[in-house]
Each structure stands twice: as C-alpha cells, then as structure tokens.
Amino acid sequence: MTTQLTANEQVQDVLEALQGKAIKNVLFVACGGSSALMYPSKYLLDREAETIESDLYSSNEFIHRNPVKLGKDSLVILCSMEGKTPETVKAVSFAKSKGATTVALTHKLGSPLTADADFVLRYDWGKESNAINSNYSFMYQLVMGLLSVYEGKNEDYQKLLSGLDQLQTIYDRTREQFKEKAEQFSKEYKDEKVIYTVASGVNYGIAYSFAICILMEMQWIHSHAIHAGEYFHGPFEIIDKNVPFLILLGLDETRPLEERALKFSSEYGEKLVVLDAKDFDLNEIDETVKKYIAPLVLNDVLRLYAEKLADERNHPLSTRRYMWKVDY
Amino acid sequence: MTTQLTANEQVQDVLEALQGKAIKNVLFVACGGSSALMYPSKYLLDREAETIESDLYSSNEFIHRNPVKLGKDSLVILCSMEGKTPETVKAVSFAKSKGATTVALTHKLGSPLTADADFVLRYDWGKESNAINSNYSFMYQLVMGLLSVYEGKNEDYQKLLSGLDQLQTIYDRTREQFKEKAEQFSKEYKDEKVIYTVASGVNYGIAYSFAICILMEMQWIHSHAIHAGEYFHGPFEIIDKNVPFLILLGLDETRPLEERALKFSSEYGEKLVVLDAKDFDLNEIDETVKKYIAPLVLNDVLRLYAEKLADERNHPLSTRRYMWKVDY
Asked: SIS domain: from which residue to which, for each copy (chains A, B) (predicted)?
C-alpha cells in the first residue's frame, strides 16, 4: 500500500474546487520576479499537458493585449508578493470580467490582490519559512496538481510532491556547499559594470530574475538574460575576455543549449561564472523530476550570490532609488 | 462590386493547399532576427484568432522542449534568411516527424531549410526589393490569410493586404523624414557603451531585434530589450542621466505601457531616443490595421538609424568576430 501525498491544504482546496470544471488554457500573469517564477511552470505544462494550452504575460501586457483565448474556460494564475502590484491587481478583475477563473498567489492575506480572486494561495517567505510553502513550490503543486486531476498524471505529481518536501533540506545543504564560491564571486565581480546571464528551458526564468531583479534593480549593474539558444544569433558577438557571463546549466531537456553556450564562452570569454545543477546533491529527488527541482535550487544559490555581492559592494539588496519612492 | 485582393502567389498557394486541413495551433520557430520578425504575428493571432492557439520558440528550444501540443494539427512556421541556420533546418524535420505541417520562409531557394518543408515562401531582400515581398509582409499575409480562410475574417485581411501594398511607399517617405534625426542619433550616441531598448505589444520584437542583432551583434554595444510593462518591476532602477534608452511607441493596444515607460524615463533619464509611430504618415493605411503596420515602419526607420550609427563609428554592420568565422 502506497501513501498518497497531497498538496498544501490551500492548493488542495483549489484542486478539489476545480474538479469537473472545463479548463482549455492556463494563463500565467504577473510582473518582474513574480512573473519569472512562473516560467518553470510554463515549461512543465509545455512538456506534460496534453489537453491544456498555456501562455505567459506581463500583467499590463495581458490586460491591453486582451488575448481572444481568455474566457470562461481559462484558468488565470497571478502572483504578487505583497499583493499590491497595481497591474496584477487589475488583471484579476479583468480576467474575471471575461469569465475566467482566477488563482492569486501572494504572501499577504487581505491584500488588494486577494479581494476579487476566486482562490487565494498564501505562500511563506523569508528566512524562517520552509521551501515547501514557497511561491515556486505552490506553483508546481498547482500546475502538476492540475495535470493529476485533469490528465490522470498522478505518478509524476507524487514524485514532484515528494521532491518539494525535501526542498528545504536541499537548499540548506547547497547553500553550505556554495558559500565559498559565492564569496569568491562577490570579490571577483564587485566592480563589474555589466554582467550577462544565460540559460534556457526550465531555467530561463531564473536567469531573467537574476538579471532584472538582482543585478539591475538591487545592484544597478547592467544586465540582460540571454536565452542560450538565441546567444548564437546575435548576442554572442558581445563577448570577449572583459565581459562577464553568468551561465546556468540545468538538468532539463534543453541542457545541450546551455552547454553549447558555455563551451563557446569558455573559448572567447575569461570572466565566466558557471552554476551547474549537476554539482548539486539531489539524491532525495526522483530522477524524472530532478529537472524541475534544479531551477529552484539554482535560484536559491543565486540568492546567496546576490547577498554576498551586495555585502562586498556595500549596496544592500534593499536599496532603491525609484521603486516605492517616487511616482511611476 | 469590390475587387478582392489576394496574397502573394506563393502565400496564396499555401492558403489554398491548407483549405480543409484542421489547424489547432500555429508555432513560430526561428532564431535571432528571424524569430523577432515573428513576434508581431504572434501578437496578431493573440488578438484575432478565435480557434487557433499559438506559441513562439527559438528553434533549438523548440526541438529540445518538444512541446506536447506539437502534432498533426500543428502548423509550424519557420524562417531563416539564408536557409542555413542549422537549428531551424533541423526544426523542420523534427516538426514533420511529429506529423506537423511546415511552412519555411527564406530568401534562398534551394537552401537546406527548403529541403523537407511542406511549403516554401521565398521572400525578397535588399535595397532593390519591394516591401510587399519582404519577410515581415509574408508573415502577415500568411497568418491573417489563415484567419481569413479558417475564421472568415476576410474584411481585416483585405485591409491588411491593401496596407502592405503601400508599405514600400511608406518606408521611402519615412526614411526621408527621419534622415536628419538618424544622423543626429549617430553623432550623439556613437560613444555609448550600453543602449537599452524598450517596447511592448506588437512592437516588442522590433526592440528585441535592434538590441540583439544591431547593437550587440553588429556594433558590439551592450544592450537588452526591456518590455515596457516589466520595466517598472526591476529594470527601471538602472536608469539615470547617463544611461541611454531607445523607446518605441506604437499604435497598438499596449501603447499606454510604452507611454508610461517614456514618461518615467523622461523624468529620470536624459539620454532618450524616442521613435513614435504617431509621427509617421500612414494615410494610405486603414485605421484598424495601422497598429500592425507601425512596427514594420519602426523597424525600417531603425535600420536607417543603424546604418548611420555604423558609419559614424566606422564599424560596418557587416563586421563580425565570431559569426560565420569560427566554430560554434
């Protein structure tokens, strides 16, 4: 007899409430880092979903583009940490006005984002929280849970739930493993004016998040997340021995693209920071879902890199000149 | 009695051959600039297509991600100027192996891209060609043609065909109008080390193309195409009076996003290059399709900006250090 794992109670409630409801497409709608954390779920649906189409939009693009496919058979998943992002709050009522069902992820219960949403998932955040209850984890529980409900993919769902249950242990262990490397990175790269990031597949959102949220927003360092497949069709002409590249290697099907980008960059660049998920100890995770866990661990290690970089540059990650300070 | 316009003969042949075939989704597959020129068509399908889903992938991501939705009811549209891009050539046979129908756009008949494709569209390119037979024009003729065939949207199709017929006239007139501005841009920005580009909606691909193909590839200037909606969720912290931003304003539904990015940038930045499609004379174009023509004109004007910049920097647009020169 096998014990069946279930998702977090909140996610489980959504999945049960959706039983029997037709879902033609899932639309991921958020801004910045909250959008980036949905990229792995879009990849997962592309790989696994046989009956559900999916797409991903920045919140205001979603509202103004007003895709025709948005309708009563749409499930719109939105996210905002504080639940106050005006575009994402507006996207909830917009989606509902088209008859769609909405699931809002936020850290703050009672925030504006939660007012109109059909379902609210309140995730944990911060040093004391457990990764099983993080935004990334809730996203996977929700989308893989949908495939379990709608397409009978319970086996993979069980493997993923079991993996997510071990996520905090893996985070803690991997942070310890990469502490020295993160310090070395911060010392070597603290004076750089531009740092590119590169990834593909399920990891691309992690590279995007590090580029726009950590480097540009929190450190005022020029950046651009280059898709590893696009690299060879323009962007690679920028590399030389003085231009820093942070290259991620995951465990998903697109790893050959990232390896190719690394191979070329190693030949013509000299300032390379490489984070390879093969160096992570993921022994608790079932082989078939390691690829989905890898970007989450890459992201957590990168947070450590960011913290060390901020310390070394005396530029705290909380420093802003415009965000929350001026009108925009 | 109204005369019915028809697409270019080659496109017309594809549309006629497709009559009666089920199409569940259209997948846009290419790399770099050839991928960027498909973004407007993805926007158009999102806005207009009621029965056809769509998605866009860089060629190698497409092959390795191997989306489940790729199948016998998929129409895969691919593009490569010289028809030799290995990933895109491989994507044709990959798509066919899944039962999909393939349409390959290329400037070179007989190139590897054309070998396995079900349909080939040979577009014109270069100074002597007419814009009606360009890659951008063929893309619109094809996707709007599909909506005419599959969803009876002949009225909009006629308006778009009529507009494309005037495209060369508009290009010529607008280049003349922007000659001085392009020269001024090249003088003012020739020594910049980084230039960001910003756009949204139907114009985003144009900003992406200018960032990765012109600035990074052809001029070795750091760049990153920032989505105007994402700008306020990280990237905007990078702007100050010394950081150059090229901001595009189009005529589509997402213009408010671009206007907001411009308003903020005008307040905190001083090096702004603004290209506003409202300044174009598009009097030949029907009001309802102007938004789709605008990005094509923006792109052509930006080519002029690129040419002037290359002259001023004594760095020809054809200069490469890696592309076509080394193994990658």
From this structure: 14-152
